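A.,

Following up on our hallway conversation. Structure tokens first:
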């Protein structure tokens, strides 16, 4: 039964990753909350999953000539350096602190997207009101 649940969790993680949300956002809490896996192992598993997905995505995008290699170089080097620093940090601190950091990160992302959605709704409403005023003046 546990294998079936892991397959389901992995499937949803892959779906979220394919939609651009990031599969780890789903996979890490599922593994740690429901399967009792330590935060460090969860994050390590997520990195391995991400690497496989990143290679597949890179090949697909490269094949379709959708990669700006100048931008890639500007992003890759800082990412490698910061990922290395974060990995060293993750190894040195306890699993509880990692869980707190990850939880705060997820909460901040949620707040950011909530504010972004509210601002987009406000912008759409203002645009609609402007269009309505413009329409009324033309008549």
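Then the amino acids I'd put at each of the 139 positions:
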């Amino acid at each position: 039964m546990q294998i079936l649940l892991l397959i389901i969790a992995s499937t949803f993680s892959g779906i979220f990753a394919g939609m651009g949300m990031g599969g780890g956002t789903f996979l890490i809490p599922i593994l740690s909350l429901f399967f009792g896996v330590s935060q460090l192992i969860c994050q390590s598993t997520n990195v391995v999953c991400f690497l496989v997905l990143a290679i597949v995505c890179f090949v697909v995008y490269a094949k379709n000539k959708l990669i700006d290699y100048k931008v890639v170089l500007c992003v890759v080097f800082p990412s490698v350096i910061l990922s290395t620093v974060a990995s060293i940090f993750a190894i040195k601190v306890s699993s509880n602190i990692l869980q707190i950091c990850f939880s705060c990160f997820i909460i901040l992302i949620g707040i950011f997207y909530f504010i972004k959605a509210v601002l987009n709704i406000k912008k759409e409403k203002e645009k609609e009101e402007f269009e309505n005023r413009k329409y009324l003046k033309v008549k």
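Residues 1-69 form one domain. Curious whether your intuition agrees with the design.

B.
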